[in-house]
Structures are given as structure tokens and as C-alpha cells.
Amino acid sequence: MLLGGIEPDQPLAAVVPLDTDAPDRIEAISRLWGGLQAPPPPADLRVTLQRRQRLRHMLRAFDGRACRATYREIAEVMFGVSRVASDSWKTSALRDSTIRLVRDGLAMVDGGYRDLLRRRRRR
């Protein structure tokens, strides 16, 4: 939450609730501070290139579904018309992938994005 009337040169404070997510919040604040002081931020490859690409696909699939596109239409845009047409749609692996992308995109939009901010912990 940003406070009104704060000038850019004024110091800010962060309030961290001391609950089970406190370590994640503190780490996020630390990364923000580091990024503000010495950009670019450290190359924490916690989110790999492959994972970032899948996140983009999930959000694109979700957007397509939110605009009332069918799973097949979404798959044609994401994978190409010729790849979708090459298999029977009902048994296609692309159909299953598209459905998973839409499902996971919905979960991401419905609050799952917060998991990206959480620190990985050893089990």
C-alpha cells in the first residue's frame, strides 16, 4: 500500500506481519532494497527460463479463455494451426497441454502468483 503525499526523496517504512510468511516477506523486501540500491538485482535463477516461458503461456491461455476462446482456438494460436490439425483433437496431447495451461493460468491469476515471491525452503 502506498501512502498519499509521500515525496520521492522521503524515506519509507515496511511493515511485516510476523506470521508464517514473514521470512518470505523479509527476503522480498531485502531484494527490493538491493534492487533499488544497486540495480540490476542479483541473478537468482529461482525462476528458470523454461519456467518463465511456461508462466507466459499460462497467462496467454488464461487471457484467451477469459475472452471466450475455445481450447482449440487457444492451442492454434499458441502451437500453430498445422500442429493442432495434424492430430485428432479429442486425443491430442496439445489439447491436454492447453487445458493444463488454462487451468494453471487461472490458479495463477487467482492468487497463485504469490508463490513466486515465496522463498524456497529445504524440506
What assembly state would you assign to the polypeptide chains in this entry?
single chain
Q: Which band does the percent of strand residues land in?
A: under 5%
How many β-strand stretches? 0
Number of helices: 5
Quick rundown:
With 123 residues, the protein is an all-alpha fold.
Can you tag this structure with a few keywords?
123 residues; 2 domains; mainly alpha; single chain
Describe the structure.
By secondary structure, the protein is mainly alpha-helical. It has two domains: 11-44; 49-116. Helix 2 (49-66) packs antiparallel against helix 3 and helix 2 crosses helix 5 (93-109). The chain contains five helices and no strands. Helix content is 53%, strand content 0%.
Layout: helices, strands, pairs:
Elements: H1 22-37, H2 49-66, H3 71-79, H4 81-85, H5 93-109
Helix pairs in contact: 2-3, 2-5, 3-5
